[in-house]
Write a structure and sequence with these properties.
Length: 77
């Protein structure tokens, strides 16, 4: 397991990467970043990918809930 500093770096980089992905529309940019990281630090690469995946999963979960709520409200009208 990565130490606290590696996780902090990975989390910050994940947030920045997702922001750039959103602005540029490159939805697989995180894989390119992971490749760059993996060339010099497999530990940071793994922590980064974990941070990215958890954030992307959260976004998908929130989008799913919003869609469900919208459908429920539309059906209740």
């Amino acid at each position: 397991m990565a130490d606290e500093h590696v996780n902090l770096m990975a989390n910050k980089l994940a947030e920045e990467c997702l922001a750039v992905q959103k602005e540029t529309g490159e939805d697989r940019l995180f894989m390119e970043v992971a490749g760059v990281l993996g060339a010099s630090s497999q530990t940071l690469e793994e922590a980064f990918l974990t941070a990215i995946r958890t954030r992307m999963a959260e976004q998908q979960g929130r989008a799913f809930l919003a869609k469900k709520l919208k459908a429920h409200r539309a059906a209740s009208e």
